[in-house]
Amino acid sequence: MNIFEFERLLLAEIDAQVAEASDDQLFAGGYLRGHITLAVAQSELSGRNHIRDVKARVKTSLNQAILSGELNDDDQKLVLGFWLKLVDKVERQAASAE
């Protein structure tokens, strides 16, 4: 799986949850969309085309948001937890498809 397929799967999973998502899940998914898209674009521009690079960039971006006070404590836990579950689900789906 390349970074663009990874991005597509992540965003599709966020979209698939919209109909049944809680307000917190909608917030976390919407918040992560921008971080994911930016991480993929930055990875592509720098020639870093591994999924681990995208995941590292998202993590760095989220950490910067936390340090800047953009997310309160509850939102930090919510977004980071959603991110970890999202990545796990997409990677498991991709592995089972191989």
TrEMBL record:
InterPro entries to which the protein is assigned, alphabetical: UPF_YfcL
Pfam families in the cross-refs: YfcL
Highest taxon above the source species: Bacteria
Identification of the protein by name: YfcL family protein
